[in-house]
Amino acid sequence: MSISPSTRIALLSAILYVSKVALEFLPNVELVSLLVILYTLVFGKETFLTVTVFNLFELIQWGFGTWWFSYLYVWPLLCLITLILKKLIKEEFLVWAIVSGCFGLIFGSLFAIVYIPINLSYALTYWISGLPWDVWHGVCNFILMLVLGKPLYLLLIRMKGSVQS
Prior knowledge:
Mean pLDDT: 94
Radius of gyration: 16 Å
Strand content: under 5%
Helix content: over 70%
Number of helices: 7
CATH architecture: Orthogonal Bundle
CATH class: Mainly Alpha
Distance between the termini: 6 Å
Number of strands: 0
Largest sheet: none
Structural class: mainly alpha
Order of helices and strands: HHHHHHH
């Protein structure tokens, strides 16, 4: 049975969105970073479209705001980083856990970029005030990738193989 790329993109985007909504009660704990890395490892460049659809889901739920501009480059940037490192890191999930943790750590600084044209001091203040949450975000990303990375990766590989057969 074959599955069309558009169906896969819709399904994976929905999983991203539902995983984010399900964990919203836990500050800075999310599965989106983990899933974006894993989707990129398994499905490659197609993940850029997946995160685009996810971003549209977020816009529909939360409405338009400056945060949304950040989403337009934050998640594609994680896809790009993963694509660049994919051949180097391969299936070393301890290293992917470090990458995911570092991404969580710089998440606030990536969000602050959108405020630089408005007011540089505000952007800096925004970033610095969020540093404790970025540390927490990085730690959680690291742990989630370390615990769930390889099992979910193998599941995605198995699912990809079974639907293409």
